[in-house]
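Q&A log
Question type: sequence-to-structure
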Amino acid sequence: MNTKSLTVGLFILTCAFAASVLAGTPEQEKAFVDKYKAAYEAGDKATLESFLYTKGAHPKALEFFKMMQLQGAGTKIGKIELIDLSPEEAKAAEAIDEMPDGQKTKMPLKPTKKLKISVETKDGANNSSGSTSCLVAEKDGKFVIPVPVAAK
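Response status: OK
Response body:
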């Protein structure tokens, strides 16, 4: 084995190790999900908004994300889970999107998971259920919900 092959091999091994170290642990995932669930069921607007990664956020996207986080807040969650993105979902998450006003946006962080929330509501004789999901990324060792920024 020559020096160049050894160097490339060590680089790849180091990158793989670094990626595994930076990935959230099952305990961190559980803590994120538990905290989100508690805030959602309590209708805790401030805590729900604290999950958003807003650095450089497009103002209209930020407004929309805040509104969506509060939609249904205060109700009991039937099921909540943090799921790895499929390769197709990961590719779509990195794409540039167009806002209704024509402006282009993209995610400021690379999402690796999605938070899926299923809610069931019973109001007398009426029952309804629905689910929503949002992209989740990691920043500085914690899970966040990235808000799109203007694409350049």
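Response note: Confidence is low (pLDDT under 50) at residues 1-22.
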